[in-house]
Amino acid sequence: MTIFENIEYDGHEQVVFCKDEKSGLKAIIAVHDTTLGPGVGGCRMWSYASEKEALTDALRLSKGMTYKNAMAGLEFGGGKAVIIGNANTDKSKELLTAYGQFVERVAGRYITAEDVGISPEDMEVVHTQTKYVAGLSGTSGDPSPFTAYGVYQGIKASVEKRLGRTDLKGLKVAIQGVGHVGYYLCKHLFEAGAQLFVCDINQQALARVRDEFNAVVTELDDIYDLDVDVYAPCALGATINDDTISRLKCTVVAGAANNQLAEERHGEILKQKNILYAPDYVINAGGIINISFEKNGYNADKAHEKVSKIYQTLKDLYDRAESTATPTNIIADQMALEIISQAKACSVMA
């Protein structure tokens, strides 16, 4: 299968395959669209089952970053990188150094940051080889708290739209994945009075949210069957698929994970089931919004204020989806493309 045959290929501007024999690095950098600015997106390290799977993830995630940045009103395009390997056993200073050298060769069309399997500390190593790094310590730092806050605001907007409630007290929320983002989301929801049900492969992370937030721990596969108000996927993507969608008993899907729908048609199925879906790249934009404030001198308060606007963005999106009887994921794509098209038109006129 070639890149052009991959269903996720969407006229990407640039795809770079990175291989370094000495360090064992195998990575893919995908730049989707730079109409609004340089492609900005995290670097994910994961034990992909195949190179095809890694390519699909890079293509899909980079496109999602284009739409995410557009909907967040940022002067960024969409890019993403994936490193093939186990972050616990394969990651090394040499590997990260080699990755940084490849980022430098892309010459600013892609700005990298942390993601699954990669920490802000890892980005410091990458930064020794390239200036095209965001989210470093001493600047905006770990984006997880801001991502979680944006998801929390999105859950409030979704619950208000779907359930007519302006408070979350007693709300039942199933959170899949309680790592950095999931932990902070649990904290916000617990403080708002929500009842939490959680699952994760990391037992220490589970114990932490159980002890601190009185969360009920469930088995990994049982999370889909819970009778809850909100299902919040906060781990890897495609958890809403043909195998799980019929099992959902929630009324809202709103979480931090990227690419939550395995296929676009699953948005229509959620609509038919009367489940309100918060498009992932809209609700989880808090981290990249925070990073955007590095550009002209970082200000955490201003970043926090802009992240809170995810609430209104989702409310406007829901109103448009309702008025046109269109799935929310389709409306989000339409809104993002309108922003990009307008920017292209303005650049031509200029």
Walk me through what this model shows:
This protein is α/β, with parallel strands linked by helices and 350 residues long. The protein has two domains: 3-69 and 76-127, Leucine Dehydrogenase, chain A, domain 1 (Rossmann fold), CATH 3.40.50; 144-337, Rossmann fold. The chain is built from twelve helices and eleven strands. It has helices spanning 51-71, 93-105, 120-127, 144-163, 180-191, 203-213, 265-272, 280-283, 286-292, 300-307, 310-324, 328-349; strands at residues 14-20, 25-33, 39-46, 77-84, 110-114, 172-176, 195-199, 216-217, 230-233, 252-253, 276-277. It is globular, with a radius of gyration of 19 Å. The termini are far apart. The mean pLDDT is 95.
Number of self-contained structural domains = 2
Run of helices and strands? EEEHEHEHHEHEHEEEHEHHHHH
Gross morphology: globular
Task: Count every helix, treating DSSP H or I runs of 4 or more residues as helices.
Answer: 12
Query: How do the strands of the widest beta sheet line up side by side?
Result: 8-7-6-9-10-11
Proportion of residues in β-strands: 15-25%
- End-to-end Cα distance: 40 Å
Low-confidence stretches: none
Which CATH top level class of the largest domain fits?
A: Alpha Beta
Mean pLDDT: 95
